[in-house]
Structures are given as structure tokens and as C-alpha cells.
Amino acid sequence: MTEQQTIAVAMSGGVDSSTVAAMLRAEGHNLVGLTMQLWNQKRLAGKNGMTEEVTGRCCSLDDVYDARRVAEKLGIPYYVVNHERQFESDVVRPFVAEYLSGRTPIPCSLCNSHIKFADFLREAQQIGADKIATGHYARVEHDEERGRWLLKRPKDLAKDQTYFLFGLSQEMLARTLFPLGGMTKPEVRARAAEHGLALAQKPDSQEICFVPNGDYKQFLDSYLAEQGETLPDTAGELVASSGEVIGRHEGIHHFTVGQRKGLGVATGSPLYVIELRGDRKQVVVGGSDELYSRKMVVRKLNWIAVEEPAAAGEPMRVTVKIRNRHEPAAAVISPDGETVRVEFEQEQRAITPGQAAVFYDGDVVVGGGWIG
Fold it and tell me: Where is this region: Interaction with tRNA (predicted)?
């Protein structure tokens, strides 16, 4: 990249986005640093045992301070933009609704599509930026033959974030830079040190930004209490895969497919959650072998590498990820109206409704959607 551009950098306060800013600044580009304030980390403190601890999560107040210090060091303008209201309506509320219905949501994909890219691009355009840059580990390039922008897996597959980016549109990809796509995490940390960034060894964020310590139940209880809403009664039957009722549970939102602990029943062999029937408030349990399946249906699709298929599109051979840490598995996908039927070559463990399914052709993201 030799042409000087005005670029808005999404600065999270972590080593990745900070290194992106330092690299682009060194290349001579005009930069503006923007941090999106999405959630008040102290908002639910004291409700139902919720603490103010913010360690290990992205978008904390400490992260804002770190981003500001990096901007000051680089000599670039820096702004914090408040998006709390939209984040709550587009990410938090759907997260709560999905959990209470017996599905296992993945809010980071919603946040990327609706907030971090759609809104960020609008703001960047308003300040005169040609493009935006983020610290995601992914690659974007234009395919002249297809006439489309492609989203591709990065060099460092251990840090691959394309699973969370499947919702990006062609317009978003055309205006987005992923400078870290060709680098490994150790190389990024080394580059941060070369640029004199004090946070070169700062640990990565691990938790969902609005759920402290990964305790979804505590968050749901605290959030609904704050909203003046009563936690819905989702208690019901614990059912064996044979149909036999073997106990009761206190709420369907306490469970996820594949879960073994906390079932409240003892048998001669381990039991796992194999299905959640939200409409009947039933948690279905069975043996480990019953967690495996070859088929699923994917809804609310976004296509990247190809045009949207016809209502009954031709089957495609791809690999499919059903969660972030899942190794893409060979499958045939068959577009069918507004859904895609997926059939894997080999059975996959714990296909979970509410999670994303992302389709790949080698390193190229074909598209993706939500497991039904």
C-alpha cells in the first residue's frame, strides 16, 4: 500500500489494533483513531452478586485509556464514540432472548456486522476517511474474475477471526483493511515492541465484553433485574432421548448442547445435553454418541464469495465451521430458498442451534448463517 489515504482505525486498546495504527502511521497515512463505547462495565455492579471486575474482557475503561495513550504517542486524533444504546438493542437484547428460548447465541458476530463495521464505516465516511482498518486476523482482497471482494483466512490460523466476520457485506469489505492478515501473533507483538508500544505484551481479551467471567446465568439475572423484568419461568422436564422423563430442571437457559455437568441426575453412565426444546421447556439428555450428527439447517444467510444462490441453488462442496474453535469439516451445502441444508461427510459433535455456521472454499469464506 503506497498511496497515502485517510484511514479510520478501530482502536480497542489491545496490542492488535494498536499495532495496526502504528504500522499505518509509519507508512505515512493520515489516521484517526476511534474507539466504540459499547457497554458500561460498571452498569450491573452490585446486582445479584455482579462485581465490577473487568479483567480479561474487551472494551473496558482500561482499554479506552490504553487506546488514548497509543493515539497520543502516534500523534493522531482520537475519539470515543458512544454506541451503548444500539449495542444493547442489536446485541444484548437478542442475546438474552436467544438464551431464554433455549438457543446458544454468539453475540460477537452480531456486534461485528451491526456495530463494529456498519456503524463504524458510516462514522468513518462522515469524517472523510477513505477506509477503515481493524486488528482482526483475516485477509480481504478483490477477485477480478468474480468481480467480488473476498474474505480469507489469515496466515495465523490459530488467531483466525473469519468465523465472526461472515456477516460482512461487499460494501464493508471494499472499504476495510486487515493489516495483520499476513502476520502471526508473535510477529505482531514484535512489531508493537519495535514501534515502542508499552502494551506489546498485553494479554488478549477472552470474555464476551458484557458477561463477566463467562457467567451467562448471572448476567441474565442481573440484567433482567435492572430492567425491572422478571426472569421467565423456563423450568421444565429433563427428558431422556428415549422419551422418558427422568427429572426436572430449574431453567432451560442454564443449559447448552454438549453440556455434561450440572444436570442434576445420576446414572450409571455419563449424560450430556443433546437437545433443548424451548417451546416445551424440555432438556433432552443422552449418551455421548447421541451428540453426533451429519445434518443441519442454516438460516439468515450472508454470501460473500458468490452471488446469492437461486431459491434451489446447485449443491456446493465446502468445509464448514460450526463454532470458532472447530476445524472446518467437509460438507455439501444445498441452498433451499432462504435456508441452506448442510450434510457433513463425517458426523460432527454438538451442532448447536444459535451458533454460526461458516462455509469455506479453502481459505476463502463462501458465506455463512445461523444454525437453526
Answer: 159-161
